[in-house]
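User: These chains co-purify. Model them together.
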Amino acid sequence: DIQMTQSPSTLSASVGDRVTITCRASQSIGSWLAWYQQKPGKAPKLLIYKASTLESGVPSRFSGSGSGTEFTLTISSLQPDDFATYYCQQYNSDSTFGQGTKLEIK
Amino acid sequence: EVQLVESGGGLVQPGGSLRLSCAASGFKFSSFWMHWVRQAPGKGLVWVSRINSLGSSTTYAESVKGRFTISRDNAKNTLYLQMNSLRADDTAVYYCAQIRGGGNESPYWGQGTLVTVSS
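Assistant: Joint model of the two components:
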């Protein structure tokens, strides 16, 4: 099974900050990686797919990069609505999620 | 508008069984692969199972293999998850999610249904 490791587990930041979340795969997954945002009590929302493609309707301050085993999600200028938990998902072989990164207000 | 509506959750005793349903609308259900994903209270997302569009190919996480069965009825636009030999660590909100054609990402999710395994 492919394991996904996200870091950090928790991130404290302020409105306007630039933040980066990292996801590492235990083996190469090409570009078969997605990023989701989840708020309490809600279903996950797709932000990025194929490592760097922005889902329709998602603000351009979100971006993704990477391939193989190392991936990043960057939010260029945090907005109040962005404080949530973020998950990476590999879908090269079945599917696996990272353990999540909780983005908190500093 | 794409809609996925899960049902069938509830309280069940350890060792018991439950069948979850996911009613799909707003898209051609028979053309899309589907996932089940779960989330224990306060924990992260965990992939459970996947089924292809015809229902002829299925895969499972190791933690549920042999106990859970994913299936679908394309005539009824409904996805199922039969859960047997339930354990306390199966307690979670269970989501169904559409798998986008050409990729495997999930742009559409249901609202989830809570399964609680407890005596």
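The mean pLDDT of chain B is 96.
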